[in-house]
Amino acid sequence: MQTTERFSISIETSLARKMDKMATASGFSNRSAFVRDLIRREIAREAWEHNDNVAGTITLVYDHHTTGLSERIIAIQHDAQAHILASTHVHLDHHHCMEMIMAKGKASDLKDLAGALRKERGVLHAELSTGAPTDVDSLIPHKH
């Protein structure tokens, strides 16, 4: 069974009120759940900053009528196959596609992959969404 460590912190009343508003707006039922989420986000941010193994998504929007673009996107993904877990492709309209690529690896490798895709002529949008460290245990309370 997981144990819980209780601790208290002292913060200014105005800051506590802002935190409560943020927690409520984010759908958290209490301060503890909100603070746990903040800590987990910070752990993930540090993993990206320290070039740890991470998981993330790359979202692309592109004009598939751009000559050779689909083939170049596929070639880039094949070159990065060690990092790509899956991808989903949808048609937005007659000319435009959106693709979400789920990947894991060193943070720098995922940034490079997103950068390579972003630079292709015909790519209208390429966004890397930083996700969690692949060391998921760092986000989960340990059993004692």
List the helices and strands and how they pair.
Blueprint: H1 13-25, H2 31-49, E1 53-63, H3 69-79, E2 84-91, E3 96-106, H4 107-118, E4 123-133
Antiparallel strand pairs: 1-3, 1-4, 2-3
At CATH level 3, the topology of the largest domain is Alpha-Beta Plaits
Number of separate structural domains: 2
The name of the CATH architecture of the largest domain is 2-Layer Sandwich
CATH superfamily heading of the largest domain: ACT-like. Chain A, domain 2
Radius of gyration: 20 Å
Q: What is the oligomer described by this structure?
A: single chain
What's the total count of β strands?
A: 4
Neighbour order of strands in the largest sheet:
2-3-1-4
- Summarize the main sheet: 4 strands, antiparallel
Query: For the terminal residues, how far apart are their CA atoms?
Result: 7 Å
Description:
- The chain is of the alpha+beta class and 144 residues long.
- It has 2 domains: 13-49, Arc Repressor Mutant (Orthogonal Bundle); 53-133, ACT-like. Chain A, domain 2 (Alpha-Beta Plaits).
- It is 38% helix and 28% strand.
- It contains 4 helices and 4 strands, in the order ααβαββαβ.
- The chain has helices spanning 13-25, 31-49, 69-79, 107-118; strands spanning 53-63, 84-91, 96-106, 123-133.
- The protein has a 4-stranded antiparallel sheet with strand order 2-3-1-4.
- The termini are close together.
